[in-house]
Design a protein that fits this description.
The chain is an alpha/beta fold.
């Protein structure tokens, strides 16, 4: 492990880790994150990574443009104070909400987002998928351009974060096996250029389950952010 990475971002105190096995309503998830982030700031709770799925829905970040909501009646739409534009959440997509205290690590928001990108890319590598970053395009992308053909790059993971008093919440969304047609109701993350789309691990020919994706994400998380310890959360149904 790179010593500088560990010194800046890696703590000896384990980060708590929980998985919700039933879809969680969006407002319930946000309320929990808000409460947990406040408790972390106050020193009353440990850092937490929460893996979950949502029922089909669209969220509008702080930069969302009305014109990018193409089918406003298709699924519920939630305005959220995370960064970014419109995105989709639904079954088959692993959402990971990350609540860590940057004041104990490094007060560097850009570095934090880069670490989220490195985390996703390392997890994708477990399935021989090469994730890449593109200037001006948030998230992790897969180059699907064939020789002698036009550009084709698909987004496989979205990143949207909020930071309050140096405690992070919201996080990442990795497409494992969602219904990709559900993305047609929005312009995902405001990206509408020709040749850019959305993909998933299963769409790429990797028959990965959510449990396998979880294992890869857990393994990739620890070298960047530190050890994980499992906990149980309340039933949000």
């Amino acid at each position: 492990m790179d010593a500088q990475v560990k010194n800046r971002n890696w703590l000896e105190t384990p980060v708590q880790f929980a998985v919700s096995d039933k879809p969680v309503e969006y407002n319930a998830a946000v309320a929990f994150m808000e409460s947990r982030a406040a408790a972390i700031h106050a020193g009353e709770a440990e850092e937490l990574v929460w893996f979950l799925e949502h029922p089909p829905l669209y969220t509008a970040g702080t930069s969302a443009k009305e014109a990018d909501l193409l089918m406003p009646d298709r699924f519920p739409v939630y305005k959220t104070r995370r960064g970014g534009e419109y995105t989709y959440h639904g079954p088959g997509q692993r959402v990971a909400y990350v609540m860590i205290n940057l004041a104990r690590r490094t007060k560097d928001v850009r570095r934090y987002v880069q670490d989220l990108e490195r985390w996703i890319i390392a997890a994708l590598g477990a399935f021989t998928v090469t994730g890449e970053i593109r200037d001006g395009r948030v998230g992790v992308w897969v180059d699907r351009t064939k020789p002698a053909s036009a550009l084709r790059e698909d987004k496989i993971a979205a990143i949207g974060v909020r930071i309050r008093r140096w405690v992070t919440f919201h996080g990442i969304a990795l497409n494992v096996e969602p219904d990709l047609s559900h993305f047609e109701g929005i312009t995902p993350c405001g990206i509408s250029e020709q040749g850019l789309g959305v993909t998933s691990l299963v769409d790429l020919g990797r028959p990965v389950t959510l449990e396998e994706a979880d294992a890869a994400l857990q393994s990739a998380f620890e070298p960047i952010f530190g050890p994980l310890t499992p906990i149980d959360l309340p039933d949000f149904r």
